[in-house]
Design brief:
Helix content: 40-55%
Strand order of the largest sheet: 1-2
CATH class of the domain at 1-148: Mainly Alpha
Oligomer: single chain
Strand content: under 5%
Number of strands: 6
CATH superfamily of the domain at 1-148: Ankyrin repeat-containing domain
Shape: flat
Structural class: mainly alpha
Distance between the termini: 62 Å
Keywords: ANK repeat, Repeat
InterPro entries: Ankyrin_rpt, Ankyrin_rpt-contain_sf
Radius of gyration: 34 Å
């Protein structure tokens, strides 16, 4: 074995077998680390190499451990300086969550953390690594051994890091150990606000139980910031919890505060509270730009979450049916409320918005390819798309330079939808494109167009067809009874054209 052959377990060198402690700490091989300790490994006062490139390896018994060392050494005999980073074994074990190794390493260090700076640094760095990776038992062990909870990684405290990574158990542990929930991070945002922004329901619950908004008295500014974050970033369970835990309605007196409470009640679907805010508290429905903190307007939230009853209530109280839709930070902006509701399948809301005067052809501020995904999703809902057609949807509206709304309908391959708009389909589409789309999406869709006198035999076949389109066309022309209504010349022309297209495709591929 490597140790018996004279390799030092302690002295850093250029060969891989001289750094076995890092592998043992990363992979939780306590017996290996104990063996190295017996052979003279000293880790009290200095940092040891991390073999980061082997963090994904799985180690078996001692023989396979040494075998990996010997094999990997063959690939880099001249040095490993470009593949290793310097850190402590304790931090590696804490990051990997190996509590027995952490305990073993702590027992090897007799100095108290406060009396020995290197050990103190190691404890703090290890605690931060354990918190970041959610290893509760390791965090608890390090705290018991004297690690300081005031440790910061840059400007990020342990409690904030636990919130950001969603480690609820560690948040509760730090609060039980005396960490105050009112501390703020480098951007002056309260921890409960960070938890609400990150949609960490249990963290918010912990802070509420610890009195983050009520101790020593109700803190309205912090409560409004927290609620605004929850509304802006779409954390409905957090909004519900905040509304139940804090008396926002009675304490909110300024217009901007009332607007945020109205937005929160709308997002949660609390119709009675929305009605009370509108009728008894004088909330401004359309003053969100100057009265709120930047959260979406109430009508947008009602449409976003599919609350049709609240949509009707807001429209009845004079809400602007065409507000600027703010779906949330980092999310794409839809064309308008109507297309958003149609794409989600909210038929009742579509009816309400059409009745309020929203034009289905008004896709501002987005046009073209940005509108196409919403059109495609709306086509899946026959009833909704029929209502859009009845409201005057322009089938010739461009989605791309060579594609219109009608092309998207044909491309979706829904015969019922094609049949519904067949009578005026021909006047809104590029005929070459729509025939290709119909062929690609199967015989049934193509058959509806083929049997229409506006299309065949007068409509020319596109100059290029995919193999799938050619096969569908050939199969339809040969097998469908619909060809009996056309002349044999048209049938011959169609079949002959398919053969010429196939030959052209073969010649093109030869080049």
């Amino acid at each position: 074995m490597a140790l018996d052959a004279g390799a030092s377990p302690d002295r850093p060198g250029s060969r891989l077998e001289e750094h076995p402690a890092a592998l043992a700490a990363i992979h939780g091989r306590l017996e290996m680390l104990q063996l190295l300790g017996k052979r003279g490994l000293d880790i009290q006062d200095k940092r040891t190499n991390i073999l980061a490139s082997f963090s994904g390896k799985k180690l078996g018994d001692k023989t396979s451990f040494v075998h990996i060392i010997e094999k990997q050494a063959e690939f880099n005999p001249n040095g490993l300086e470009d593949r290793i980073s310097w850190d402590t074994l304790l931090m590696m074990a804490a990051k990997s969550g190996h509590e027995p190794i952490v305990r073993f390493l702590l027992e090897l260090s007799p100095q108290a953390p406060k009396a020995h700076p290197p050990v103190q640094w190691t404890m703090h760095a290890s605690l931060s690594a354990a918190v970041s990776n959610g290893h509760l038992s390791v965090v608890e062990l390090l705290l018991d051994r004297g690690a300081c909870m005031e440790t910061k990684d840059g400007n990020v405290t342990l409690l904030l890091r636990a919130i950001m990574t969603g480690n609820q158990d560690i948040v509760q542990l730090l609060l039980r150990r005396g960490r105050k929930p009112s501390n703020s991070d480098s951007v002056r945002m309260r921890l409960i606000c960070v938890a609400a922004k990150a949609d960490q329901l249990e963290s918010v619950r912990c802070f509420l139980h610890a009195g983050a908004l009520l101790h020593p008295e109700p803190n309205l500014p912090m409560a409004m910031d927290t609620l605004n974050n929850a509304v802006t970033y779409g954390s409905v369970p957090v909004i519900d919890l905040l509304l139940e835990s804090f008396d926002y309605v009675q304490l909110a007196t300024e217009p901007k505060h009332k607007t945020i409470v109205l937005c929160a009640a709308t997002a949660c679907g609390r119709t009675a509270l929305v009605r009370d805010l509108l009728e008894s508290h004088g909330c401004n429905l359309n003053g969100y730009d100057e009265d709120s903190y930047g959260c979406p307007p109430p009508l947008c939230l009602a449409v976003k979450y599919g609350h049709a009853e609240i949509v009707a209530l807001l429209l009845a109280h004079g809400a602007d049916p065409s507000p600027k839709f703010l779906p949330g930070p980092g999310k794409p902006m839809p064309p308008n409320l109507l297309w958003y509701a149609a794409s989600r399948g909210y038929e009742r809301i579509v009816v309400l918005l059409l009745a309020a005067g929203i034009d289905p052809n008004d896709s501002q501020p987005l046009e073209g390819s940005a509108l196409e995904p919403y059109v495609k999703q709306s086509i899946r809902h026959d009833g909704i798309f029929r209502r859009l057609l009845d409201a005057g949807l322009d089938l010739g509206q461009h989605l791309r330079p060579d594609s219109t709304v009608a092309n998207a309908v044909v491309r979706a391959g829904r015969p019922a939808m094609v049949r519904m708009m067949l009578h005026d389909l021909w006047s809104h589409v590029y005929k070459y494109t729509v025939v290709t789309d119909a062929l690609v999406n199967g015989k049934e869709v193509f058959g509806l167009i083929y049997e229409s006198p506006q299309w065949f035999p007068s409509t020319a076949v596109p100059p290029w067809l995919s193999w799938r389109a050619k096969e569908n066309l050939n199969q339809y022309v040969c097998c469908s009874t619909a060809v009996q209504t056309h002349s044999m010349a048209a049938l011959w022309t169609s079949r002959h054209y398919v053969e010429r297209l196939a030959l052209r495709h073969v010649v093109a591929n030869m080049w």
